[in-house]
Amino acid sequence: MNNERKYKMGLQLYTIRDAMNTDARDTLKKVRALGYEDLEVYGFDGDKDSYYGFKSPVFKKILDDLGLTTTSGHYGLQDYYNSSEEELIRYVDQCISGAWALEQDYITWPWLDPQFRNEEGFKRLTPKLNKIGERVTKAGLGFAYHNHGFEFEDLGGKNGYDIILSETDPKLVKLQLDFYWVIHSSKDGPAEIIARQPERYVMWHIKDMDKETRDYTELGNGSIDYSEILPKVDKSGLKYYYLEQGGNFEHNSMQSITDSAAFFQKHLRHYIG
Predict the structure, then answer these.
(1) What CATH number is attached to the domain comprising 201?
(2) Which of 40, 66, 142, 167 has its CA 20 to 30 A from that of 30?
(3) What pTM did the predictor assign?
(4) For the Xylose isomerase-like TIM barrel domain, which residue ranges apply (predicted)?
(5) Per-residue pLDDT, 102
(6) Based on the structure, what is the number of domains in the chain?
(7) Are 211 and 222 in contact (CB under 8 A)?
């Protein structure tokens, strides 16, 4: 019997940003001991070619020594929204070099500043996403957009996510679906969203929602029933998934990733494989 799993259990390191800022190497050692195998990074410094204060080749060796991989990164592309195309492409090329060094598969756009969360802002965003996707794809990597809740706010009969779906090239711009934010802010559930453009949702963020405040919480403590959701989204095109909790920790961030990992491994992992 082959017990090898198709997917590694992933973690978005932003969850434990306080611990990473204190001692990244020791924190990653603890992460691996909890059963996490794959990571999504954040905070790349393009000018210094560094992650968490380590040059990219050094950080890659730390991961290798611990038996960890990183398949995606949330890169600071949103900081170049109003920059010239030359400045944007310069940073994209830095991200490509960093991603190559870490042997990542995806570069991910993670955020959109509030002043651009309107119809005009999204329409200005989509050609940038296509341009970045073309550059990244030519470099042999994948590019994706990560949603929050603001993409689902009504903009006069449409929303930002509709604009992104319709005005970006599915071959160049993949999607990282954040289940929490879909359930928090969208009138449609994850299965309905995925059904519009199946196979485009190559990455997932899995996190739970506090039953009263609707803030983040540890997996199993909240209102999101992943045993109902996960079996219905197998047409997404999934390559990688990452557990995440942006804040509102019951005790602290490291205890939260401990508790979420334990719940996920016991109750949910078998739905993914």
Answers:
(1) 3.20.20.150
(2) 142
(3) 0.97
(4) 29-244
(5) 98
(6) 1
(7) yes
